[in-house]
Amino acid sequence: MIVQGDVFFTRAKKLPVNAEVKQRSNRGYIIADGEATGHAHVVDDDVELLESDGILYLKTAKEIQVKHEEHKPVILSKGIWKVGIVKEYDPFSEEARPVRD
Question: What share of the chain is helix, strand, coil (3-state, %, to 5)?
Answer without folding.
Answer: 0, 55, 45
